């Protein structure tokens, strides 16, 4: 293939330039780049002139003079690419200062808005402290009430047991009196009977 311009082995070309210079469809160039592991710069394939000459069997012995404009254009593109790379690195370095995580964000406030936000934040902290204090007091009150209830329950149980013991003692006393009464009645009956027999 004779390309009267054009491709120089020591230069590099973008996909669009190769497509235009060699009249090859961009999709075909994509396939060629993938098959031959052509490197990407800023997500664009860059073809070396030496690769193009070998792959497309280009005869570069003729038409070298027509090449100068293309060389200048490609050189300009590379300078722009290098400048863009430097700019991207600078931007990355600037962003790295913040190191924002996926669950974080940066907000911009006016001075007045920030003062109001700070005031509300302080009020919220104060309110949280008050709520915690009230919870502690309430917890102590509940604990005190529980302790009093437990005390009264123990007192009630003690009094109940005491009452049961007194009732048992009364019952035993009543049973004893009844037995004594029965014995007294029996004696009286026997004595009365004995007296009648004596008469």
What do these coordinates show?
The chain has helices spanning 15-22, 26-35, 49-56, 67-96, 111-198, and strands at 12-14, 40-41, 44-48. Strand 2 and strand 3 form a beta hairpin. With 199 residues, it is mainly alpha-helical. 6% of the residues are buried. Helices cover 72% and strands 5% of the residues. Strands 1-3-2 form a three-stranded antiparallel β-sheet. The model is unreliable at 63-67 (pLDDT under 50). It is built from five helices and three strands; from the N terminus they run E-H-H-E-E-H-H-H. The protein has a domain at 12-75. It is rod-shaped and about 170 Å long.
Features:
72% helix; 199 residues; 5 helices; three-stranded antiparallel beta sheet; mainly alpha; rod-shaped
Please give a quick description of this structure.
72% of the residues lie in helices and 5% in strands. By secondary structure, the protein is mainly α. It has a domain of 64 residues.
Specify the overall morphology. Answer: rod-shaped
- Residue share in helix: over 70%
Q: Could you list the spans in which at least 5 consecutive residues all have pLDDT below 50?
A: 63-67
Number of strands: 3
Overall pLDDT metric: 80
Radius of gyration: 55 Å
| Tally of individual helices | 5
| Alpha-beta content class | mainly alpha
In the sheet with the most strands, the strands line up as: 1-3-2
Oligomer designation:
single chain
Order of helices and strands: EHHEEHHH
Main β-sheet: number of strands, strand sense, barrel status?
3 strands, antiparallel
Strand content: 5-15%
Measured between the Cα atoms of the first and last residue, the distance is: 172 Å
